[in-house]
Amino acid sequence: RVLDAARSLATDGGIGAVRMRDVSRRSGVPEHELYQHFSSTEHLMVLAQEQLVPIVIWGDMTLKACAVTP
Question: pTM here?
Answer without folding.
Answer: 0.69
